[in-house]
Amino acid sequence: MKYNVFKTKKEASKAAYETFKQYLKPNSVLGLATGGTPTDFYKEIIADYNLGNTSYKNNVTFNLDEYVGISYDHPESYHKFMDTNLFDHIDIDRKNINIPDASSEHLAEEIKKYQNKLNNKTINIQLLGVGSNGHIGFNEPGTFFNVGVHVVDLNEETIEANSRFFNNDKNLVPKQAVTMGIADIMKSEVIILLAFGENKKEAIKSLFDENEPTVDIPCTILKNHPNVYVFVDEEADYNK
Ligand code: PGA
Fold this sequence. Notes:
7-stranded parallel beta sheet; about 240 residues
């Protein structure tokens, strides 16, 4: 695991983008994340794209997760997030974008479909955030490492953390999500994990301690992955 500390989220995101670009190929399959963490990273993608340095015409993307129970158009849906923060600003071909359709009435079928699509591709570069409880994607503590795409009940800490996007009202936060499983995440060739802020420090620390991976802190499975880059700001630096 390569550990990189920068003063700010902005600087760390810039450095993470440089690493991403080293691996990026015109036809790379990209695993993408949402939330407060990757916003500056996506700004770096857009800025470089606007300079004419990159094209995403032939890239395929898979998002980690989507809330159950809110529509595509909801301002906090992850579909909307991706359009606003990235896809509307680059030349990605819409048919190459994959995000779980968690508003489907046939959720079980949708999950199977998403799993099949993932099984037929290899994610070359996976971008990850991490929850303060160590979740990756929405794989909450206790999730087995061998599971694929599934519906998850969000735990209290996650609902509390994400209420900041829902007028600070926990009741407005969806209670379930569809997420890629840890097995899917672990199959990606390169993982770039970003973490910013004091509340991520414990999760980051767990990546570098002497303990074996534990389902109680899902991100610890990344110790078993051969190519992980971690970018943090000073507040999330576990050495401090
Ligand atoms: P955040 O969430 O980026 O909104 O902090 C990260 C995560 O829960 O994976």
